[in-house]
Write a structure and sequence with these properties.
Distance between the termini: 34 Å
Strand content: 35-45%
Organism: Triticum turgidum subsp. durum (Durum wheat)
Strand order of the largest sheet: 1-2-3-4
Oligomer: single chain
Protein name: F-box associated domain-containing protein
Number of strands: 12
Helix content: under 10%
Number of helices: 2
Structural class: mainly beta
Number of domains: 1
Order of helices and strands: EEEEEEEEHEEEEH
Length: 184
């Protein structure tokens, strides 16, 4: 195995999970209880085009969102249906509102940084394009926009909500912010 670039891990089932950014077939797993490494299968895309994929925690299980190089308007969201048998399902295929954004907002280009959150069965996409940040729903509809006035914002995977060490303070905090946005 050659060099690989890993993003921020997702924490599920007392383990940290890393996914190689480019067309990986495997997920590297570190069990925080036994302090051992292992591998698990990643979802197999039916499209054999190069893509960028990122792992995230999705309602207590793993999710991987993929944006194919050839189909830039499409984001596939895979969710791990069964952790033990490593069964993945394609939960969403979302068409980004690229034409609407390019036509309505000045300074937007073809380079989209997309982040996905799946919480309480609801999916939200946060896309950074040029000087803008867009909130997109699971139907590909533009929900909201924000003009930052500076260059692109790239924040893949920076949404860990849990510590490896449980603290009573965080449990109390989670109860008080139950209705907030899934993006941190």
């Amino acid at each position: 195995m050659g060099s690989a670039y890993f993003n921020v891990p997702a924490r599920v089932c007392d383990s940290l999970h890393w996914y190689v950014r480019w067309q990986s077939k495997l997920i590297v797993v570190f069990n925080t209880i036994t302090e051992t490494f292992q591998q698990m299968r990643a979802p197999t895309s039916p499209i054999s085009q190069p893509c960028r994929s990122y792992i995230f925690e999705a309602d207590g299980t793993l999710g991987i969102h993929t944006r194919h190089t050839a189909m830039k308007e499409i984001v596939d969201i895979w969710v791990l249906q069964n952790y033990e048998s490593e069964v993945w399902v394609l939960k969403y295929r979302i068409k980004l509102p690229v034409a609407e954004v390019m036509g309505r907002f000045e300074g937007c280009d073809e380079l989209w940084y997309v982040n996905v959150a799946l919480e309480h069965g609801r999916v939200s996409l946060l896309a950074s394009v040029g000087e803008w940040v867009f909130h997109i729903d699971s139907d590909g509809k533009l929900v909201d926009s924000f003009h930052r006035g500076v260059g692109s914002l790239c924040g893949y995977g920076f949404r860990l909500k849990q510590s490896l060490v449980p603290h009573s303070f965080f449990t109390a905090l989670e109860v008080s912010v139950a209705s907030t946005s899934p993006f941190i």
